[in-house]
Amino acid sequence: MAVSSSEVNLLVYRYLQESGFTHSAFTFGYESLVHKSSVANADLPPGALISILQKGLQYIEIEAHLNEDGSERTIPEPFALLTPQAIRDRRLNAIRDYNRGEEQLAKDAEDRLSGKLVGEDSVTSLKGHTSEVFICSWNPTTDLLASGSKDSTARLWQIPHGRSGPPASEMCMKTTQILKHVRDGTKVKEHKDVTTLDWNSDGTLLATGTFDGQARIWTKDGELKSTLTKHAGPIFSLKWNKSSNYLLSGSVDKTAIVWDAREGTVKQQFEFHKQPTLDVDWRDETVFATCSSDKMIHVCELGLDEPKETFQGHQDEVNAIKWDPSKRFLASCSDDGTAKLWSINASNGLNSNGGDGSQNANSSDDNNNSDNKTDEGATKTDGDGGDTAMVVDSEESTTTSSIKRSTISITSNKSQDPRNKWVHSFDDHTKEVYTIRWSPCGQGSANPNKNLLLASASFDSDIMLWDVESMKRVHWLKEHTNPVYSVSFSPDGNYLASGAFDKCLHIWSVKDGSLIKTYRGPGGIFDVCWNAAGDKVAAGFSDNSVAVVDLRV
User: Fold this and answer.
1) d(Cα 280, Cα 303) in Å, to the nearest integer?
2) Which of 410, 510, 408 has the alpha carbon at shortest distance from 452?
3) Tens of pLDDT along 290-324?
4) Which residue intervals of the chain bear CATH 1.20.960.30?
């Protein structure tokens, strides 16, 4: 049996997608022209590459232990993947044990979740996309849901209020607007994947970004208002400012662009990164942050030719950035397995005493007096950004204090580089941290009397909730069994939705970290989001569908 290079490329491309290496998948797909191959639309089951490799290894091992007459023989040589050496018996047994372990894990998960699964009458399945659904977003004023897919379209779904009348899925299908990112009659659709989208603040306009580097602005009725062409590579992130006069986009071409949304023109292009720009986020009407594969974070302002601030400290590419509701802190997450907090003005940041001069809540009564002394490794901050309080891995620091903490350690930033001024580093994840979200709580939010939390989700399958003021991890959410792609807080901050490639959409209680409800979908989940009323959660799946879970039922 011969395997073509196109088939191998497709297997690798799908493996990168399924493993959570989204950016690498896009780049590999672009360079290998996998979308132009004759097998581009092949229906591959999840884990196809791994399955083929496992089966191949099993056959090789079996063959290595058989003589030509069918009798068994012993082969003492160790297995080597890239050379024709034989595999020992224990290798085959290990594979069998692994397969049995996977089956048991799936059964155990089913048993744990059986009492929490939502009923089918609570779920509306939206069909229409013909490829993976990467992203979804609710209109901020109505139950109008936007979804973006690899099939070169975004779709608008009008979700009916209540459950009376025809099935909701049928009603939605009749009112769906299809936002095509290729002209009618055009057969070539490669590199038109809708990778990101964002509603403006009043819900009148929807912006979409695609793999071909174009951004588009649509009305909520599905009318194309503008096509924005300047980027030379895929767009991974775009955001409206609050006034909706500017649209910000970040691209693989290493730049960020501020667009004049009314004119459909480039206001300013920012070329500060040395590698792809992976995420962008507005701080206010003219100031924003960008992050990149180059491990750097820049804070920029419209009209300036240089960054206002540059932050460095991550040891691998920075996947996402988010300003907190008060705009005091910028959160970031990285493939280095950490999430970090940054402050433009060190005097406005949190210090080692919890930000208000009181003793840090993490300090315990049984600490030695020497643990709390101020010395060369003290964590006191000053208004000049000198000795900035930060939390780092103890292995990376030479000034770690001896204060006993359950999850993190405090150090003083003694680096001569002023850009290394993170306020906190949360280091408990064991793999890449792909996404972060702030709770809609605290100063500057709709829930000012609730504590501000930061959620971090990782390819280690775990989600962690951090109390920013106390620097404590308040909850460790462990029910997912595959990389977690997306998390989203409910508008009141009481619940957290999460979606992972284990096909599960989980709803968690923020108060006690308990699992409330679970929807087991038809494929891996790329994105989850709450509607403005907080009674529905939408999810985009790898099987081409979108699901809406009505939590009132």
Assistant:
1) 17
2) 510
3) 999 999 999 999 999 999 999 999 999 999 999 99
4) 5-113
Cα four-point dihedral sign 30, 458, 14, 182: negative
CATH number 1.10.287.3510 is the correct assignment for the domain at 5-113: no
Alpha carbons 41 and 27: distance in angstroms, whole number: 18
Residue 307: count of CB within 10 angstroms of its CB: 18
CB distance 270 to 290 below 8 Å: yes
- Written as six digits, the tokens of 258 are 């501020």
> By the 8 A CB rule, do 505 and 497 touch?
yes
Contact by Cβ (8 Å): 295, 310: no
Residues of the chain with CATH 2.130.10.10: 120-345+424-550
Residue pair 53/15 in contact (Cβ under 8 Å)? The answer is no
pLDDT tens by residue, 319-364: 999 999 999 999 999 999 999 999 886 433 333 323 333 333 333 3
- Domain 120-345+424-550 classification at class level: mainly beta
Q: Residue 455: beta bridge partners?
A: 437, 465
- Listed in sequence order, the DSSP H helices in 114-227 are 168-175
403-437: b (≥16 Cβ within 10 Å) or e: bebeebbbbbbeeeeeeebbbbbbbbbeebbbbbb
DSSP 92: H
DSSP element (H, E) containing 434? strand 433-438
Rounded Cα distance between 351 and 346, Å, is 9
